[in-house]
Amino acid sequence: MNNAPNITVKDVPAEVVQAITAMRRPIMISHVVPDADALGSMISMALAWRDDQRQPKVSLPEGSISQRLQFLVDLADAPVATIEDFAQADGFVVIDTAKKLRCNVGPNLKDTDWSAGRPIINIDHHATSTQFGGINWVVGGASSTCELVYYLLRAADRPISAASASLIYSGIQTDTIGYSLPTTSASALRATADAVELGADIGQIGERLGRSQTQSEFDLLRVIYDNTKVLADGRLAYSSASFDDIENAGCTAADIDDQINVPRSLDGVVLAMLFTEGVQGKTRINFRGSGQVTISELAAIFKGGGHSQAAGAILDCGINEAIEKVVPQALEHLSTFV
After folding, report:
1. Number of independent structural domains in the chain
2. Within a 10 A sphere around the Cβ of 1, how many other Cβ atoms?
3. Are strands 236-241 and 91-95 parallel, antiparallel or unpaired?
4. Residues 6 or more apart whose Cβ sits within 8 Å of residue 297
5. Which of 44, 80, 96, 299 is 20 to 30 A off residue 326, Cα-Cα?
């Protein structure tokens, strides 16, 4: 059953539009290891508000973009913020990010009070959002933040270029896994159709996102397939990639994301997990649920968060220790569902 909210221009809070419009040097920020939805929503916002009065920038620290998604940044010629831009910014728009600690501001700013008392506007679709902004527009269960941003740009009467349309299309298409998730609302499909009419390059997006793996990405997938294990009579599956696995494949932490779809794709699996040690001594866990199985509660045990059926967490330990801690909890959690 599809219970995803339908978004309209009328749902966009006027205070959000007013606050962003009042900024002259805003910086758009998304979460660490940004996916297509984070990049699409953040960059399309920056492009839409760029004019003679405003010079928005986007926070994209070096090394934070995956090989697969670099083309989205190049497509839009995104204006990237420097540390000096952070010092001079008169506000921040944090997009697709549930916790302030998850903001992709780079190692030089991560442990500082980078907002320094300046306004933060938080736009997000994660149900577990902590709503840390001075102004928050959070629609839990929406298909994507790109959907929210599309209607926000319409409400603000801001321009949507062909490049922005491609970014918005990419974010909605990937966050719904090709419109296959219950979060695929009618308003998400309307936004997608409008993006196509505005010039979204479907051919390029499909080619780059679905049919253009580098050799290193392909080699990492081999590892994920080889390491996949199935438990609980085929209802739970997980895979893993150690720091050495990732490095030997020629990848980095920025390249970890969609590989969760390998254990998730097995017939009968209703709870899937991916353990990856992109940074030595830190293990990221991606959780996915299907059918009636929700996993946000499981992620919360490990101080993570996200959506009801797509969430994540990070543990300060190596990959074997993380697996030993999480798998028993996952099995216990799964046992609560018939």
Report:
1. 2
2. 4
3. unpaired
4. 333
5. 96
